[in-house]
Amino acid sequence: MEKQSFSRRILFPIALVMGTMIISINAYDLSRSIENQTLHQSIAHISAVLMFLSIWLGALFANTIAFFRGASFGERLIVCLATPIVWCTKSILYFRGFRTVGEMIFLIFFPVFIGTLAVAVLCMGLSEIWCRIIYRRRSEYADLKIFELSNTLALIIGIGLTTLFLWHGGLFYAYNIYMAAYEYIFQ
Amino acid sequence: MKYHKSNFSQSITRRDALKVMGGAALSLLFGYDHSKKLIAQTKKPNVIFVLTDDHRWDAMSCMGHPFLKTPNLDRIANEGILFENAFVTTSLCSPSRASFLSGQYAHTHGVIHNYTPWNESNTTFLELIKKAGYDTAFIGKWHMPGEGLPKLRGLDHFITFTMLSGQGVYYDCPLFIDGVETERKGKYITEDLTDFALKFIEKKRNNPFCLYLSHKAAHYGFRPPKHLNHLYDDVDLKLPKESDIWIPFTNANYITGQILPMNFMYRNYCETLVSVDEQLGRIIKKLEEMNELDNTVIIYSADNGYFWGEHGNIDKRLAYEESIRIPFIIRYPGLIKDPGRRAKQMALNIDLAPTLLDILNVPIPANMQGMSLKPIILSDKSKGRESWLYEYCSELTSNVPGITAVRTENYKYIEYQNNAWPSELFDLTKDPGERNNIIKTGRGKVLLKELKKEMERIKIETEFKPLENM
């Protein structure tokens, strides 16, 4: 596979997903100030869906683009995690000024933030499968493995963590564990 | 009287003898029925304080809610006084609950957020009412952490839950019944607590009673009882204009753990509140059967309000009206001569304790910082307070910095911890939704000086300490 330039194989997929996130977050926040209810609700719905797609499922798109532009596995991992990491960082920085440094570090382990990273890894693992299937069909690399150690590991970690958060209200259990730990450490 | 001490059951004091003679004289003068009413006014009334969770001031049909039907709340409002401008001094469960009990601001009673324990040296109105000869019970949500259950003075019965840091759950919530942990399989919490309340009310006794019924409902996790589930499925929810279903997932609202679509939660919230109203109806019915309704001071209130999308928020904590305004209804025909009145004077959660003590003619301790609402109950012309202090201490489940604010009848000034957010000043008469921060306008600058001065005055008067430094 032809390895394209740094900006085409890494910066472009990151910018596409992160740009969607930035625009949708701002559009969503602005929507509340719109008096016309139909317009307000339409913008809120569209931007919220785009926000969700970019933060949580953006890796599906970013990884696919990066894969076919010749990014290495490590580069693809960066491409997939960039948007959720930026969103988590932005979310944690929201608390500056009224949280201690220790509390802000502890926030990194907040289940929703861990969840975004877990889902990004899962999306990357899934994307790897179809990228490899498509690439094998289209090219002369018929011996390209669908499941290599790296992408299989990403898939297993992604599925494992996501299932943990979703199964039987796991996110809420995680939230309670997180809060108990907070109480133990900081109170 | 059946449920109170008979005048002849014990040795007769001079006062008792005078009462009996007076009663006989009244019977001769006015006839039996009328004299019975007059005598009833001289005996000690029972007290029932019902506290709900997260019940905002306008979530009742008597406040014009578009679809919620609360006939029993409407009834006590129509037969009593509804304080339309009632607030909490801290919009968070534990501090607000401690304020109701102690009549003090959070910086005085020391329960600054949901992770600070109750200080057992605090005096509750229950303790003082017990000393005045009442049978007392606390039934329901205590929700202040500490080593096990608190040792509350002046309580004959204490039924509560500790599950989920004292939040409890709507179904099958284990209870501590006078210290004994008991499974409650198949029980819905609002009904279960009311069952215990009814048992306490109907118990044969010599003394009047004081019941503190503290519901879990309608706290987050909103779950109605089965017969009310889906009651409002086909209703247009009419969420606030600024609201949309995504708000719980955005703007760090997820940090509070309430990660479900707004419309789903609001529907369940309303259905859960209908259950609270139904159970209040059972209590009223029981009091009627016992012929004790008019001899009982019934007060209904909530620990804080709740956002349903206003200002892009869900939950509470902030100093905006949706978060700090609560229902506050008092029904007591023994004092209220103009039932159905809507009082405009500002009432606070810290007023409950002094008001109850005043109604029962129990001396109000000097360290209670609330004011008795009895003069307002007696007369609409009675002047209310002019201003009060709002305070909030941030904790990790919160997406809001610490807050100190002052609210007057017309204005509100809000300061945030470490200036993490810009200060705000609102003209509540022109901008009741608090959308237009006028702090930087010419008028705002003039008002700011006055409001800061007023804030300082209250801080000195109440020996204020910043909550985050406590």
Cα-to-Cα separation, first versus last residue of chain B: 50 Å
Structural class of chain B: alpha/beta
CATH architecture title of the largest domain in chain B: 3-Layer(aba) Sandwich
Looking at CATH, the homologous superfamily of the largest domain in chain B is Alkaline Phosphatase, subunit A
For the sheet with most strands of chain B, the description reads: 10 strands, mixed
The biggest sheet of chain A, with number of strands, parallel, antiparallel or mixed sense and barrel status, is: none
Q: Fraction of residues of chain A in helices? A: over 70%
Q: Enumerate the spans of chain B where pLDDT stays under 50 for 5 or more consecutive residues.
A: 1-13
Number of domains of chain B: 3
Classify the beta-strand content of chain B into a percent band: 15-25%
Count of individual domains of chain A: 1
Measured as a percent range, the helix fraction of chain B is 25-40%
What is the CATH class name of the largest domain in chain B? Alpha Beta
Our Rg estimate of chain A from Cα atoms comes to: 19 Å
Question: What would the principal axes of the Cα set say about the shape of chain B?
Answer: globular
The whole-number mean of residue pLDDT values of chain A reads 91
How many E strands of chain A?
0
Order of helices and strands of chain B: HHEHEHHHEEHEEHEHEEEHEEHHEEEEH
DSSP summary, beta strand count of chain B: 16
Q: Could you tell me the mean pLDDT of chain B?
A: 91
Question: What does it look like?
Answer:
The complex is a heterodimer of chains A (187) and B (470). By secondary structure, chain A is mainly α. Chain A has one domain (6-186). Helix content of chain A is 79%, strand content 0%. Chain A is built from 8 helices and no strands. Chain A has helices spanning 6-31, 37-56, 58-68, 73-93, 101-107, 111-138, 149-166, 170-186. In chain A, helix 1 (6-31) runs parallel beside helix 4 (73-93), helix 3 (58-68) packs antiparallel against helix 4 and helix 4 runs antiparallel to helix 6 (111-138). Chain A is globular. Chain A starts with 5 loop residues before the first helix and ends with a helix. Chain B is α/β, with parallel strands linked by helices and 470 residues long. Chain B is built from 13 helices and 16 strands. Chain B has helices at 14-30, 32-42, 71-78, 93-102, 106-109, 125-131, 163-166, 189-202, 262-289, 321-324, 352-359, 374-378, 442-461; strands spanning 46-52, 81-87, 135-140, 157-160, 175-177, 180-182, 209-214, 296-302, 307-308, 314-315, 328-331, 341-348, 387-392, 403-408, 411-416, 424-427. In chain B, the strands form 3 sheets. In chain B, strands 6-5-4-3-7-1-8-11-2-12 form a 10-stranded mixed β-sheet, sandwiched between helices. Chain B starts with 13 loop residues before the first helix and ends in a 9-residue tail after the last helix. Mean pLDDT of chain B is 91; it is low at 1-13. At the A-B interface, helix 1, helix 2, helix 5 and helix 8 of A face loops of B.
